[in-house]
């Protein structure tokens, strides 16, 4: 048994090694080690391009920081959006006004997110001083009945039987369709 395994391993190794020795019609081996190695020239050109881009970016940051003047900040771009109601009463928005209706022009600032953050006021947090809810009333509203008094058991069973009858009737109507 072990001789068969050893023979099979030798045949497998010779078969793999043979691909590096056996020649194609053009005289080159079927496989070569170059096919297993990555193309380093493509990687090095990408790295060189990345380094040059990084150098250019840092140089432009340094030069623009020197030229930057707080008084001469550029205004953010503004967009004009038109809104109107269509025949169904739905609001429609577009960057071009409709040809057959009057539309309201709205200027939208490029600093929309900054404007929203600047005007945002967080909601007032609930504290024990400004909490006006009555704890007793809140507790009685959220009571879940865990037990039923003996007087209410018969009423509860009637309700259960009525619900079961209602569900059975509903099931019979569905079967008819």
Q: Your description of this structure?
A:
The chain is mainly alpha-helical. Among the domains are: 2-61, no CATH class; 78-119, no CATH class. Helix content is 51%, strand content 10%. The protein has helices at residues 2-21, 40-67, 112-119, 135-141, 150-176, and strands at residues 78-85, 91-94, 104-109.
| Count of helical regions | 5
Radius of gyration from CA coordinates: 40 Å
Mean pLDDT: 75
- Strand adjacency order, main sheet: 2-1-3
Largest sheet: 3 strands, antiparallel
N to C succession of SSEs:
HHEEEHHH
Secondary structural class? mainly alpha
Unreliable residue runs: none
Number of strands: 3
Fraction in helix: 40-55%
Percentage of β-strand residues: 5-15%
The N- and C-terminal alpha carbons lie at a distance of: 72 Å
Quaternary status of these chains? Answer: single chain
Global geometry: flat
Offer a few descriptive terms.
mainly alpha, 51% helix, 177 residues, flat, 3-stranded antiparallel sheet, 3 strands
Topology:
Elements: H1 2-21, H2 40-67, E1 78-85, E2 91-94, E3 104-109, H3 112-119, H4 135-141, H5 150-176
Antiparallel strand pairs: 1-2, 1-3
In short:
With 177 residues, this protein is mostly helical. It has 5 helices and 3 strands; from the N terminus they run ααβββααα. Among the domains are: 2-61, no CATH class; 78-119, no CATH class.
